Amino acid sequence: MAVFMDVHHGMAGITADQLAAAHQADLAIEAEEQVHFKQAWADPDSGTVYCLSEAPSMEAVQRIHERAGHRADEIHPVPLTA
Amino acid sequence: MAVFMDVHHGMAGITADQLAAAHQADLAIEAEEQVHFKQAWADPDSGTVYCLSEAPSMEAVQRIHERAGHRADEIHPVPLTA
Question: Is A47 on the interface with B (CB under 8 A)?
Fold first, then answer.
């Protein structure tokens, strides 16, 4: 399993309820791809959302996000943590 | 206290030791600005580093990063989490 940080742009005005619903939509199907979305953070002003996940591949992360209705604009493997 | 995600670009080739040293440099002085850097993630291929912090302001986050020798390219308040 690898760790990924993905980024969504254009989410200006996102609310706490909308973020929670989007995250829940990921969680509901993530096991089908052996993905786990650990946490998400949103900046409603700039419209940026960051998602931290563990997954077998970048493609698996994107497949879950796409099926949940919110394709990521960037996905970065983040093999290093501190 | 607010939560911030900051991003550093141009860090291609960063190693685990370099990330740990940079994070440690932040931790060594962060209390002077009531900042706490909770975690950092790096993608050596794209040269992207993400730092999650709690701080009184975006400016306080940047002051610690600057004094530690690595100014952030972007800092986003992330008031929403899921």
Answer: no
Q: Are strands A48-55 and A74-77 parallel, antiparallel or unpaired?
A: unpaired
Query: What whole-number distance in Å separates Cα of residue B6 and Cα of residue B76?
Result: 6
Distance from C-alpha of B19 to C-alpha of B15, rounded to nearest angstrom: 6
Interatomic CA distance for residues A39 and B39, integer angstroms? 13
Q: Give the domains, in start order, of chain A with CATH numbers.
A: 2-77 (3.30.70.3090)
What ipTM was predicted for this assembly?
Answer: 0.91
- Cβ of A46 within 8 Å of Cβ of B76? The answer is yes
Which stretches in chain B have pLDDT values below 70?
Answer: none
Cβ A6 vs Cβ A74: under 8 Å: yes
Residue among B40, B45, B79 whose CB faces A81 most closely: B40
Give the SS3 label for residue A73. Answer: coil
The four Cα atoms A81, A79, A77, A49 give a dihedral, to 10 degrees, of -10
